[in-house]
Write a structure and sequence with these properties.
It is a single chain. This protein is α/β, with parallel strands linked by helices. It folds into 3 domains: 55 residues; 171 residues, Periplasmic binding protein-like II (D-Maltodextrin-Binding Protein, domain 2), CATH 3.40.190; 126 residues, Periplasmic binding protein-like II (D-Maltodextrin-Binding Protein, domain 2, 3-Layer(aba) Sandwich). Strands 1, 2, 3, 4, 5 and 13 form a 6-stranded mixed sheet that branches. A 5-stranded mixed sheet has the order 9-8-10-7-11.
Length: 385
């Protein structure tokens, strides 16, 4: 028989273990509850996604405005259809044409398009400014899209001030200009100031810097980097020839008509270079660091969408690994996702290395204020030519 003293000792001896067991039980319960909550959230998200896809299928299609690129026009709808069984009606064209159509339709109370893939000028100075957009951020629900570790910036990259409307899918290092190597030899261009050499007078071409687009981006870059005098010498004294047709610029540099050409079609010239055409992209010079561009890789959702559920499915898909890789491969833009091996299909110089100090021509403030002022300056400058 245990005496009172022994019993008391036993009680004291076991008390810490009992407390430990209670704490362990409580911790286990909390972990179990947290796990069940996570499972419930995941299940709810999956059910929400399944319901969204089902609603999108009932709508039957999604209408997407995008660049006039034959490969994109063919492969993006095919991949989306294969994945969801939903028709993607792709309307490719110039941004100016697409926005003119949108304005005309909306003035008549007609809404035919759901989403758009475009450039910063269209997004910032027309669609966002004229309040034609619905927020993208709230409709993104796929876990792989929301996971910051899947994006090079550690999060979704929204361009607009509200961080809601314009999602950036491309971030490509773009060459300031291309040269025809049959005419321009190694050593001819060791710095940006070599462009002012009289031997290149009348032998350079660029997109019109007086209209929104790559041409005004380029002129603004030179202006900010080197000042007014350099811009006058380059655009006036060197008698640069202008075109508003990038295909024409591309053809000119391939044929050597204008062996130094700004603002040509990067993806087309890269394809031609691989086929043996004597073309070289100049990405950087000692006095001219590289530039970054989102190309036609900005995503936005149009308000009053006729197929709102299908538009949401498209937004999630194009921001996913599968969708963005299809678009990146066909359009030639470096994806902002970190889980896509872009080096397998893009030229290495077009993928900006981590920590690179490049000039971002797609900066929002640069687009809506600085560049517009310089574009007006270029109009005045060239008017007097």
């Amino acid at each position: 028989m245990t005496n009172r003293k022994d019993a008391t000792s036993a009680k004291v001896f076991f008390q810490p273990t009992q407390v430990f067991s209670l704490r362990a039980l409580r911790l286990c319960s909390e972990l179990t509850f947290a796990f069940l909550c996570c499972v419930s959230v995941a299940q709810a998200a999956e059910q929400s996604w399944d319901a969204l896809v089902a609603a999108a299928k009932r709508e039957g299609k999604v209408v997407v405005l995008g660049p006039a690129d034959p490969q994109v026009r063919q492969e993006l709808p095919a991949a989306f259809k294969a994945r969801f069984g939903i028709t993607l009606e792709y309307l490719g064209g110039r941004s100016s044409e697409s926005t003119a159509r949108l304005r005309s339709e909306r003035n008549a109370g007609v809404y035919t398009a759901d989403a758009i893939l475009g450039g910063i000028q269209t997004m910032a100075t027309i669609l966002h400014r004229e309040k034609m957009l619905d927020p993208v951020k709230p409709v993104l629900i796929l876990s792989e899209v929301l996971d910051g570790s899947k994006w090079k910036k550690g999060k979704l990259w929204f361009m607009d001030p509200e961080q809601q409307y314009v999602l950036r899918l491309f971030n490509t290092a773009s060459p300031p200009f291309y040269v025809n190597t049959n005419v321009v030899k190694p050593g001819d261009l060791r710095s940006a100031h070599d462009l002012l050499n009289p031997k290149w007078k009348g032998r350079m071409a660029a997109q019109d810097p007086t209209v929104p687009g790559p041409g005004s981006n380029q002129a603004a870059r030179f202006y900010l980097r080197f000042g007014e005098e350099f811009v006058k010498q380059l655009y006036i004294d060197q008698k640069i020839v202008f075109s508003r047709d990038r295909r024409q610029l591309t053809d000119w540099v391939m044929r050597g008509t204008y062996p130094i050409t700004f603002d040509a079609e990067d993806d087309e010239l890269e394809r031609m270079r691989k086929e043996g055409v004597p073309i070289m992209a100049v990405y950087t010079l000692p006095d001219l660091p590289g530039t970054l561009s989102g190309g036609e890789g900005l995503l936005a959702l149009l308000n009053h969408a006729p197929h709102p559920n299908a538009a949401k499915v498209f937004a999630n898909w194009i921001a996913s690994k599968e969708g963005l890789e299809v678009y990146s491969r066909t359009r030639g833009g470096a994806p902002t996702r970190s889980d896509i091996n872009a080096a397998a299909y893009l030229p290495e110089p077009s993928i900006p290395p981590p920590g690179s100090n490049y000039f971002d021509t797609y900066d929002w403030e640069f687009t809506v204020t600085t560049k517009e002022k310089i574009r007006q300056y270029m109009k005045d400058l060239l008017r007097a030519r």
